[in-house]
Amino acid sequence: MILVTGATGAVGREVARLLAAAGPVRILARRPERVTVRGPEVDVVAGEYGDRASLDRALRGIDAVFLVTNSPTEPDDARVAAAAAAAGVRHLVKLSMMAVEEPDADDFITRLQRGNEQAVRESGVPWTFVRPRTFMSNTLSWAKGIASDGVVRALHGRSPVACVDPRDVAAVAVAALTGTGHEGRAYGVSGPVAISAYEQTAQLSEVLGRPLRFEELPPDRAREALLAKYPRPVAEAFLESAERQRAGAKAAVVPTVEELTGRPARPFRTWAADHAESFGAVGRAA
Questions:
Q1: How far apart are CA 286 and CA 273, in angstroms?
Q2: Per the database record, which ranges form the NAD(P)-binding domain (predicted)?
Q3: Is the pLDDT of residue 256 over 90?
Q4: Measured between alpha carbons, how far is 129 from 93 in angstroms, rounded to an integer?
Q5: Cα 136 to the chain's mean position, in Å?
Q6: pLDDT tens digits, residue range 180-191?
């Protein structure tokens, strides 16, 4: 039995779906009504990381855990790892980020994830870290601007990033959860090619069948928008990350998806076509 957390997010939801298609899976959710993966093999339990009793209930009889955390202040990785160790869990696969393995990355979020990985290591539970590059699904934040005036606004539009389809990240995680020999390994996960926001806009235009224009977002406006949505340390981390991308730090492509799943990573055009309705149109074939 495998326990999936984060099953209402882009990666966790797909991990749960893939596992449920092959056998029993348990999902831990703070709000079970939001879980969309259902079926006779799916056991959805209510609980949260800060409630040790609910963690213990969710981990009863569990062999492996897929762990997703996102709090900038709570020690959730340490909480789950400690409970998993006490429950006799044999494998913990944690969703992390590729920046943790890059020495020049020192923003708040990267430092936080490094600490989270260390907490998992120190728990004594055999671990695997899945470290994706930027998700292609982050471009869904452009949907409002595309719908209203056909404009994509973003920082550093010409800077490349080897962004990855969350479905491919999930496939790597499932391979680690269900396969052998992945303990003690950390897998960077990227898409098949580095692509800029300007190029993504052009491909979205083709997929949606309508003209789109890219507009460079000035740093002060980007900071203002981020501060309206996130705490200052998180907003500043995103801005630092964008500067690293502009310097080329996120352009490297790694072959992990093909190595662990036997098929190539999906390109951005495929992701865009599959999610065209989220941008207000029915996509063309990739």
A1: 6
A2: 6-178
A3: yes
A4: 6
A5: 9
A6: 999 999 999 999
